[in-house]
Amino acid sequence: MNDSATSHHDDCSACMLSSRIQQIGDMPGKLSRWFDDNAASLAPVFIRLLLAYEFGEAGLEKLHGDNFFADLTFPFPFNLLPADFNWNLSMGLEIIAPIALVLGVMTRFFSVALMVLTVVAIAAVHWPAEWHSLGELWKGYAITNEGYGNFKLPLMYLLMLTTLMFSGAGRLSVDGWLSKS
Question: Which of 7, 48, 152, 154 is 20 to 30 A from 110 in CA distance terms?
Fold first, then answer.
């Protein structure tokens, strides 16, 4: 091979290598665009299913359990309602809303309704009865109650519900199907 052929061959190898590196560098952007175009609106289905399971389980426990709401102190305006009414209201919402979430029907409405239910549950059940510092309050950010409350899980539900309220049900839903009509 003469020098000019060797030089041309080296240039082509460098071009190919540079091209491959560019293709690899472009992959994250292409993948992100693909997800934006094809999969982003599917994401809410996973949150909907998780929340439907969790709230549905709580509703069925209430349906088959004893009313313990008489022992709780509810925030205003729920403190003005009888314990039986609050029990049935929460049980009904925890049974109906999960069905709506699975189907993706009125997702924003039921997300807001479950957010109200969750805030009331945090105030009545999960918030610490007494705390004197942010350090003590932070101990309540837990799954189990060791005397400091246990508001971690309901706070996570609240944030997931907020996401659904803002995003809607996504493409795999009755809401999504109706919005195309």
Answer: 152
